[in-house]
Amino acid sequence: MFTQTFRRQLGLHLALIGLFAGSVPPAVQAEDFSPSILHKIQTANERIEMTVNSSRLLTLDLKIPRAQVNNKDVVDLTALSPNVIQIFAKKAGITQVNLWDEKNQIHSIDVAVFGDARELNLVLQQQFPHATVMVRPSANSVILSGFVPEPDQAAQIQLIAQDYYPKVVNLLKVGGVQQILLHVKVVEVSRTKLRELGFDFWTGNKSFFLSSTVSGLAVPNASPSGVFGPTGLETARFGVVSDNFAFFGLIDALREYDLAKIMAEPTLVTVSGRPAFFNSGGEFPILIPAGLGTVSVEFKKFGTQVDFVPIVLGNGNIRLEVKPRVSFVDPSLSVTAQGITVPGLNVREVDTGVEMKAGQTFAIAGLVQNRLETTNRGIPYLADLPYVGAAFRKTHEKNNEVELVVMVTPELVDPMDACDVPPCVPGSASRSPSDCDLYWKGHVEVPSCGPCSAGDCLWGGEGSNHMMGPGPETIPTPAPGANGAKPGESGPANGTSSSSPPRTSARTSSSNLAYPSSVAAGSPSQYSRPRPQDPRSTASASKQPAEPSLIGPVGYDAAK
Questions:
Q1: In this predicted model, what pLDDT tens digit does every residue of 259-272 receive, in sequence order?
Q2: Cα(465)–Cα(454) distance, rounded to whole angstroms?
Q3: Which tens digit of pLDDT belongs to each residue from 150-209?
Q4: What pLDDT digit, counting tens, does each position of 137-165 carry?
C-alpha cells in the first residue's frame, strides 16, 4: 500500500516538473547549453564548421516547424524541442541545412565538416607548447599552418602529422628573425699545353739570295740584299758564313705547360629576406673617349663578389637567390682605341636560385671544357712536303682544359657570447722583427709574446718588444734572490724582464689561457710563478723536437 502511494506521488511530481519545463521560455532553455555547442541563428545565411563525430545545436527565437538537409550522408538532424535542432556530423564534406520558422522564412546554414584531428592537435600542443599550429584536415591530407619559433620544429611537426595522414601540406612559418651564414666556394683549374715549331732562313751571296719569313721570326730589310733582322721571338739562331756564301736560320721550337688554380671561399651573414652583398677586390679605372678630345673615367669592379637573398621556409628549407662572381684583370683581353688601352676582365659568374636545408651543400654550377686549337701555316706545295716541308711552315697547337665548380652551403647561425669569442686572430702569433732580425738574420716575422704566443717566446733581450697590458702600473724587477729567485738568475723566476706587464691568473692555468682575470699588481706569487705552457706541447715534447723561436723569410704563420 505504501509503495503504490509513493509511486503515485512520484509520478505526479515528475509530471509537474515536465509541465513546468515545457512552459519555460526558449531563452531560458538556451542558457542550459554550452556556448561552444549552441549556435543561435540570427541571419538568413550563415556558416558553421564541424569535426567528424561531433554535434552542434541550432536554435531560433521562433519555432521550427520544418527542417531539411541536402546531403544526409554528411550530417544528420534531430529535433530536441520546438526551436532547437541537433546537427550531427557523420563524415567529412560540405552540405547545407535549411530551416523554416513560423513566419515561413527560410534560414540556410552552410555546414563544413572536417576530419577529426583533435588527437593530432593535442599531441602537437603537448610537444610544442611555444608553437602556434592550426591543423585543418581535408579529404586525403592535412594542412598545417601557423608559426613555429625554430625551423627544426617545422620538420618535426611534419613528421608527427605524417603518422596520422598520408599527405601533409606544410604551410608553417618560422617566427622571429633567422640569420643565415652562406659559404660559397669557387674552384677552377685550368691547364694549358702549347707546342709550336717554326723556321725562317736567309741564304745567298753577292749575286742571289733566298729567304723565308713564314714563321714571323724575322723582318726583311729594305736593302737589295734582302738580309732580314730577327724579331726576338725565335728560340735559337745559327748561321754559316764563308767568303762568297752565307746562310742564317731562326728556329722557334717551344713547348709550354701552364697551370692556373683559382679558389675563392667568401662567407657572408644576413637575415632572412634581406639582400646581402660582399666584394673583396677593387676597382680599376677605364678611360672612355668622349667628344671634343676629352675622356671620361669609369670604374669597374673586380675580385670576389657574392650577392644573395636567403628566405627561411616553414618546412626548415632555405631558399637562396645567389649570384657569386669571381673576376680578375686579363691583359690579353685588352682593347686599344684612339691610343687608349682598355683592359679586359676574365669573369666567372653564376646567377641562380636553389632550395635546400641548413647545412647541406649544393653545386649550383660546373664546367668541364676542353679546347684544342691547331694552326699550320706555310708556303704552298713546299710546306706539304714530308720532313723537308718543316723548313717552309709553322705549326702551332694549343690545348686548354678547364674544370670549374661553384658550391654553396647555407647555415642558420646565432651570435657568439663573450666567452665563445676566440682571443687570437690570424697574425696575432707573430710580430714585426727588430732591426737585427730583419737585416742580419733575414726574418720577416718573429713569434710574439702574449696569450696568442706559440709557446717559444723571447722574454726580454733584443727583439722582445711585446705589447704592454692595460694600465700604467708596471712591476719592478726584484733583487737577485728575492721572492724565491736563485742567485745568478736575472729578474723573476719565469724569466720576464723588468718591463713585463703584470701577469694574470689566466697565465697560471693551462686550461684557461683565453680569458684572463686580473690579479693585484705586486703580488709575490707573480715573481715565483713559472711561465705557463700548453699541455699539448708538454705532452708531445718527448716525441717531437721543439720548434725554432725564429722562422726565416717564409713567415712564422706559414711555417706553423
A1: 888 888 889 999 88
A2: 16
A3: 777 888 898 899 888 888 888 887 776 788 999 999 888 999 999 998 888 888 887 788
A4: 877 788 888 888 777 788 889 889 988 88
Short-list 107, 55, 100, CA closest to 76: 55
Alpha carbons 94 and 137: distance in angstroms, whole number: 13
Residue type, 138: S
Separation CA 462–CA 471 (nearest Å)? 24
- CA pair distance 125, 102, nearest whole angstrom: 46
The letter for the amino acid at 366 is G
DSSP run (H or E) holding 323: strand 317-337
Query: Mean of the pLDDT values across residues 270-279?
Result: 88
Place of cell 706541447: 537
Contact 175, 145 (CB under 8 A): no
Contacts of residue 139, Cβ cutoff 8 Å, sequence gap at least 6: 92
What SS3 class is residue 455?
Answer: coil
Q: Which of helix, strand or coil describes residue 175?
A: coil
Q: What's the Cα-to-Cα distance from 12 to each of 5, 190, 238, 501, rounded to whole Å?
A: 11, 107, 143, 105
Closest CA to 171 of 331, 314, 300, 360: 314
Q: What local confidence, expressed as pLDDT, does residue 2 receive? A: 40
Q: Is 407 helix (H, G, I), strand (E, B) or coil?
A: strand
**Cα 406 to chain centroid, rounded:** 12
Longest dimension (CA), the chain: 170
Residue 457 above 70 pLDDT?
Answer: no
pLDDT in tens, 366-419: 888 898 999 888 888 888 888 888 888 889 899 999 898 999 999 988 888 888
Judged by DSSP in three states, 366 sits in strand
Q: Which three cell numbers stand for residue 513?
A: 689561457
Comparing CA positions, the residue from 95, 113, 107 lying closest to residue 40 is 107
Q: How many CB atoms lie within 10 A of CB 536?
A: 10
Of residues 25, 26, 58, 55, the one with CA closest to residue 39 = 58
Instruction: Cell numbers for 151, please give them.
Output: 625551423
Band (pLDDT 50/70/90 cuts) for residue 314 is low
Whole-number Å distance between alpha carbons of 399 and 258: 10
* Degrees, nearest 5: CA angle 189-190-195: 150
CB 412 within 8 A of CB 153: no
Q: CA-to-CA distance for 63 and 105, rounded, in angstroms?
A: 11
- Pairwise CA distance, residues 325 & 134, whole Å: 43
Q: Is the pTM of this model over 0.70?
A: no
**Residue 305, SS3 per DSSP:** strand
3-state secondary structure at position 522: coil
**How crowded is the C-beta side of 421, counted as CA atoms within 13 Å?**
7
Residues 6+ apart with CB under 8 A from 361: 407, 408, 409
Query: Residue 220: which pLDDT band, with cuts at 50, 70 and 90?
Result: low
Number of CB atoms found within 10 A of residue 192's CB: 15
